[in-house]
Task: inverse folding
């Protein structure tokens, strides 16, 4: 299993990148495309190109990261995307989980551009989601 942990400061777009852009990419490339309305912070397990992928967009504190880990445990996957912070108990818990299951844990820093407009940051997050997809 591979766990891709998207970390960064608060409000840098981690949850938007995973919960909106990454999810929309997968859904738009599935046949038939799933029908539904998803919330940005909603966890989801889906099958894409023969791989089970878990998407866990929330991840600001230890409690939420532990909930993400529980979701991943319950939905055995090939690849998990989770948001987290850059340090703290949530990061420690994620590392322990990965070590216990001998999962490949990849830390990816979510860039944030203070000089971009809201629309510009939205587009940057969408582009960044496409880079995450290449890591599968």
Result:
């Amino acid at each position: 299993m591979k766990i891709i942990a998207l970390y960064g400061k608060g409000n840098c777009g981690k949850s938007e990148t995973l919960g909106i852009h990454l999810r929309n990419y997968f859904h738009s490339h599935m046949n038939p495309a799933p029908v539904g309305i998803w919330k940005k912070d909603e966890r989801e397990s889906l099958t894409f190109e023969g791989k089970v992928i878990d998407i866990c967009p929330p991840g600001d504190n230890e409690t939420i990261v532990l909930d993400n880990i529980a979701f991943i445990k319950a939905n055995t996957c090939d690849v998990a995307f989770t948001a987290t912070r850059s340090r703290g108990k949530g990061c420690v818990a994620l590392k322990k989980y990965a070590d216990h299951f001998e999962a490949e844990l990849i830390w990816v820093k979510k860039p944030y551009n203070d000089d971009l407009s809201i629309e510009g940051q939205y587009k940057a997050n969408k582009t960044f989601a496409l880079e995450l997809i290449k890591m599968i």
